[in-house]
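pasting for the record
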Amino acid sequence: MVAASLDAPAFSPAERTCRDTIAKEGVKLAKLEAKLMLSCHKRRDRERLDPGIACNDIAQADTRGRVAGSVARLSTVISAACSGLNPSDLGYSACPAPCDAAVPAIGDFTDVAACVACLVENTSESLAANALGSPSVPLGKDVRRCRTTIGSNWRKFYQVILKERRLCQRQAEAEGATDTASCRFADPRSKIQRRRANGETAIDNRCSGVNLIEVDSCSTVNLFFLKGCLFVQTDNWAETLFERFYELSAAPTTTTTVPVTTTVSHTTTTVSATTTTVPATTTTTLPGGQDPQCPNRSVLRVLAGVGATCATNADCLAGTCDPDLGRCRTVTDL
């Protein structure tokens, strides 16, 4: 988040317009890319495309070159809206991984636009891979319908998260906010919650009884786990992208210090002029204690997701690169 303090000045109207334009154009690009990749999957599933086409790669899914035009427009619109402003004053100081190689430095808002476009592409590709994988074709009719339902509801959920939180942030900054704390998990009109509920119902109705191995989504265990990894991963990645619309910086290094109490005691015993020294003993006590009313065990369900193709961890927006799969893999967000 953008660094803020109790006396941090609110953004000026021009600065707010600039930041909202960056987010607005980023949301538009994410919407287009998700639409194109879903369309590619639908056509591939029906054997209307070469089965070798990688629909989770926007460069291959975008057969008409629409993304290039949208990226160019994004850069033009952002540069115009932010004219006369300094990126670092608004929280845009460095392009984070995995886009730091593509945009090694941010000097102006053209660089900001390039970084945002790269991050949107990486996020959208990762989410498409998480939702729709790359199954072998041909597919049966029921499997195709299930996959279309999964893809459609993933895309709608992704879009509504970005849209609703961008609107929340615009209002928050108009009221003086200088970071994304109040909006990063927000759902002020309950549209995100309703979209997920509707999506889960649709998937239950369309995918019940379908072979999930053939579906090739983020889980092949059962629909409960599939819905979980689909919507949780989408929410996690969309949240990260939303925050990056308002701040671009290198990942910070976090150091956690746990206070401890250390007691050192020495015991000396004298017998017939003979001195025996007992070695020092050290006791380490962590702060706090176990309340007897608290449970002493719990159950944690871990939902893992498989994302875009990768060669190293730097290629992954979230998680790490699995060398055996050649894809980004995530575990639960703890």
